[in-house]
Amino acid sequence: MTEYPTSQEGPQPVASGGRTDEPGHGTEELGHGKAPLPAAEAVRTHAQPQAADLPRPRGTAQAPAASAADPGRTRGTAPGGEPGPGPEAPGAAKPGEPPLPASGTDRVRALRDEAAASEAGSARTREGETALEAAGPGASGPAGAGFTATSGQGAGTGADTSIARREGDRLRFVGAATRRIARGIDLDEIVLGLCRATVPTFSDAILVYLRDPLPVGDERPVGPVVLRLRRTDRLRPIDEFTGSAAAAGALTPDGELDFSQLALVGPQGDLPAAELCEIRPGGALAEVLRGVRPVFGSSAAARAALPELLGADHPVPRGQRAILAPLRGRRRVIGAAVFLRTPERPAFETNDLLVAAQLATHTALGIDKAVLYGREAYIADELQRTMLPDSLPQPTGVRLASRYLPAAETARVGGDWYDAIPLPGSRVALVVGDVMGHSMTSAAIMGQLRTTAQTLAQLDLPPAEVLHHLDEQAQRLGSDRMATCLYAVYDPVSHRITIANAGHPPPVLLHLGGRAEVLRVPPGAPIGVGGVDFEAVELDAPAGATLVLYTDGLVESRLRDVWTGIEQLRERLATTAQLTGLDHPPPLEALCDDILDMLGPGDRDDDIALLAARFDGIAPSDVAYWFLDPEETAPGRARRFARRALARWGLEELEDSLELLVSEVVTNAVRYAERPVTLRLLRTDVLRCEVGDDSPQLPRQRRARDDDEGGRGLFLVNRMARRWGATRLSSGKVVWFELALPTTPGPPQKH
Questions:
Q1: What is the pTM (predicted TM-score) of this model?
Q2: Residue 8 contacts by C-beta under 8 Å, 6 or more apart in sequence?
């Protein structure tokens, strides 16, 4: 009995009666991918094994088979008809084969050596497949052949293996391409990912059309659907062909279009297709796009649709060298992609339509995602912009500049805000706040608090009282609605500023001489804590000084604590002021930019709101102030005081206008006032008159009838004044108007 190694002893030989050089045999490895041999095949008893049953080293020839013409050459019979030896002894070899090992141990070793050699061949095969995958599906054939097999491939098992390998290449290509497309976030990245993934691996050129404008949500197009050529790409740039010579130079001798000879350089140069295409309802292009599935350029539908898409003046490739693939999003078709191959490359196959369908589907869904993301970002930007002032006012005696930076491009909304609110008496309220969080909820709370602060400011409440009411409003919004806020009121006449703080970083005051000072303001508790009293402090605000208000995103990050950042800000302001000189303050806009330049790569963890106020003030010589008792003689006294001030300022040209308007406004104030009426004139770039009384009722302009004795005062003010208005105070109201100076006349502005 002759024993052969079983599956427990080592790799098993492949039982085969065929030739080792037949197609497909070389891919069958010993002990790899095959079921174990049955026990009856592994151990034979009472019979000698056939020659084909014995394992042979690879590369050896098959022993000659027994012939019917030579019946004597059978087992146990020697050539010439002489009886041969009986059962073969261990180690005996058949004619034409190498001798077998003499012992079972040697025989096992020989089989294991053969298995090792087979495993090495399998490793080489796997290395080749890995290289093929890295090179792309185009490496499976001639240069640029894509997925198309050559015509000289063998049949049978070898052909099946080649087909399976090509299909595997397709699957790997589709997987890699879709991953590349999915990496894009915005529209351009997704379209670029499609172009880079398909050229030159799948096609030699590609044209991507998208709807213009792209639809968002369920909105219906109001006009005709227009496709715009968004991007083109090609295998190699050949830019020497331009104009009409491009089409002529792109034709092969048999008249077929060679798109590799066209300069696909995008909208800035010559294109192989029209840039715009209007989809005609019921047209060939509309039918193809409605069908969703890609079609060959040689199909009847594509032959009618491609001229409509590319333009009548541009040639269309013949045969299966073009694929027209609709780009369909979640709700509608949003574009089309045209894949092109040159004549020197095999044409597209039927399975390539499936590849194009996968690419088109993933691209369209990615474009849908990018459009929706862009829509959300647009809504966030609009929300943030509407909750921040479009432009800062320019009140008398102060100049303002501001900056706002979101935490990141992916979180464009936040709770930081700033504001500047003109107050009666030429004062201005400066506000900076920060709601916790970076979400739409934080932005909505910020908008409510900002509106509340504006309303409270118009009531001319003290800063500490404003913060108290903001704290109550935050508690009404919810127990977890917390924010920090700093509220300051600047008076240009007294050159003083009153500040109240609710858990916000302290402001920095940059003096004219270049000294930067962190103001000592009681910190207070954040808004929303409840039950906390806020304390206000009044400080000097000298002319030429700059007050910098900011949120904690400017001075605090994961790389530094808030007090380190405040100190760096103070040093930065002092350094900037020294560069511009000690007698001149730095330009306000440039100062804001320089402050933001101090931010490092890791300092953008939070939103940043910045408000800078340059105090110019109003000189005492430009201010005239009187108290008038609420008597009938008050209007006459007001006219005399006004003439006296105009004479001191050299503005006698405004006497008639000022006397008339002062008389009308003071007359209305005296009619309802119980306490003395205040009259103040301010000379800045305009002449401003302010009349205050203790009546909370605001004046309202109305049309007087012919028989009315009054009601024409505000009509005259509206017609003659440059601007006018009225503001309610906690102690009454102030009615004011402005007249343009003779040297700087301006167009009248009505309120």
A1: 0.58
A2: none
